[in-house]
Amino acid sequence: MKWYNRLFWKIFVSIWAVSFFVLLATIVFVGAVTEQDRFKDVITAKSEGYAEAMVEKYEHKGFKTLIPNLPRPRPKHRGEDDHERGPRPGPGPGAGPDKDKHEDFRRAVWLNISERVFITDIERQKKVIGFKNFKRDSDSLYVFNLTSESGRVYKVEVDLHWDASPLTHLLATVLSLQMVLILLIASIGALLVSAIVTRPLNLLREHSQAIYRGELDRRTDEKLRKRGDELGELARDFDRMADYVQQTITSHQRLMQDVSHELRAPLARLQAAAGIAEQRMGEDDKAVKRIIKECQRLDQLIGEILSLSRLEQMDGHGERVWLYSLLQEWVDDAHFTYPKRHFNLTMKSDCEVSINVKLLERAVNNILGNACKHTAEGVDIDLTVDKTDQCVLCIRDHGAGVSDAELAQLCNPFYRGQSQAKGYGLGLSIAQRAVERLGGTLTLRNHPNGGLEAIIGLPCSCPP
């Protein structure tokens, strides 16, 4: 499974993204309104002080119109507002992105106050100070009367136009220290929520895999079962399901064993009776031959059923062995059993495994026997061993293969497909159970060049 498909990262990214956009929207819109109100308050307060100073200077110079004393303007850069012009001293100790933003704001107020104020001497109907291009927008104009110490009244107009760029405010918000801290806290919260949800699910997944491997007595952790939330209920339901599965499989195995053992006694008596009938009626009697043949088939079927039920009780672990010597021995046995067959054993890389040799022998012999039974006598059978991240044993016949519909059912017990007269449909089922007890996998497929191929994957005792 790829990392981006995991539930942990999906939950983490979802929580983090929602937190980011909600916080960003809140800070941008609420912060913009708050900063705009603060901007108007600061401009209003500073304009009153500036107006008092300019009126006093105006009267002191004999009621002469004042020329605004502005700092020399510098070129305006792209994305910079008009009210941000002026020298920018470097940040002092403890400065940060958010502090720099407010420092720039305060400097912009002082540097632009003269541009935003227009003072008129009401009695003389004369301009005291102000720019010719002063904006008189009714929506952003603040007007008040100022009375000087001499008792004269002046009209003061203040431009409160908010011309801050939304993009500039957005970038300042995203790069602010508060935003970084909030996102850090949101990330930690998302990690905690993701871990709280996915950790119990991973534990349940491990327990379900253990049951699939045949560890029917495996149950969830006690801490997980004692949880009072939905995950605790899921763990308790999982244990109840595991109990039911264990009881069902155990009773099924016990039933198969009991029935097989119970059939042994009447079968033995039937075989004895068939022997007596053979002595009385002669060896050439067709009825006696049929009885003896069916008794042999029934004995083989009972033996296969007992083998299938006993596999679940066998331990897959065992001694460490090399596959080459084992496979060579089993190929010799198969050649002795099927002398007209030709078996090709190819060892691309020998593998050392820690397994129950009897289980692997049963699986390999069943696969070889199945290939010999369902192909013509002149068809070769290839065995190939290779080593990747595990030991891979491929057994391939050069027959006609099977259909895709049959391929999915070949390992089902008692499934014989089109070959109703050959075998009992338990050979591949026993092979699959044996390989699973060894901790491996059995895969059946039609080879691209023809024939059926069985691929057994086993864990190696040492890395490749």
TrEMBL record:
Segment forming the signal sequence: none
Chain intervals with Basic and acidic residues compositional bias: 78-87
Enzyme class: transferase
CDD domains: HAMP, HisKA
Keyword vocabulary terms for this entry: ATP-binding, Kinase, Membrane, Nucleotide-binding, Phosphoprotein, Transferase, Transmembrane, Transmembrane helix, Two-component regulatory system
Transmembrane domains' residue ranges: 7-32, 170-197
Domain HAMP: 195-250
Stretches of the chain forming a coiled coil according to its record: none
PANTHER family: SENSOR HISTIDINE KINASE CUSS, SENSOR HISTIDINE KINASE YKOH
Protein name: histidine kinase
Species for this entry: Neptuniibacter pectenicola
